[in-house]
Design a protein that fits this description.
With 150 residues, the protein is an all-alpha fold. The protein contains eight helices and no strands. The two termini are 16 Å apart.
């Protein structure tokens, strides 16, 4: 569904949200806090049905989607920044921020009893972050109503 360039409701919504920058950053920081908390637990609770679905690849799949979401949220926040540099480079900056957070999370897990850091987890974090930005780029290319919001 294509949107009209002068859609009043969307334009009003977009202007209101642009002035409330924390509206976009709060989900990013909350999500980062959740990741940190779950990384601090020696054995994080994973529902049994997820383990059955993904079998031995559960950890990698969870890491992928964990950092896919973080990168997606970060890109939205950067896109709505008042600074033109962040607006212009929000795809790359979101990948960089999510990837660095993923690497720091792996280092953090070294100090948690029962947890360990792996290079494969760090790499899949980066892949998830990058794939999120690829999806965002595809959505933007389509010029849908979602593009005005995200």
């Amino acid at each position: 569904m294509k949107i009209k360039k002068n859609s009043k409701l969307i334009n009003i919504w977009h202007k209101v949200l642009k002035h409330h920058i924390l509206f976009f950053w709060d989900p990013v920081f909350l999500y980062m806090a959740i990741i940190f908390y779950l990384s601090s637990i020696p054995e994080p609770p994973i529902p049994g049905f997820i383990i059955k679905i993904f079998s031995t690849k559960t950890g990698l799949v969870l890491h992928f989607f964990e950092y896919f979401i973080l990168s997606f949220l970060t890109s939205i926040a950067l896109r709505h920044s008042k600074h033109s540099f962040f607006n212009k480079h929000h795809y790359l900056l979101a990948i960089l921020i999510a990837s660095l957070y993923g690497i720091s999370d792996e280092i953090h897990q070294i100090f948690v009893p029962g947890r360990f850091a792996t290079i494969s987890d760090a790499l899949i974090n980066i892949v998830g972050a990058g794939f999120a930005q690829f999806i965002r780029w595809l959505l933007k290319k389509e010029k849908t109503i979602i593009d005005k919001i995200i």
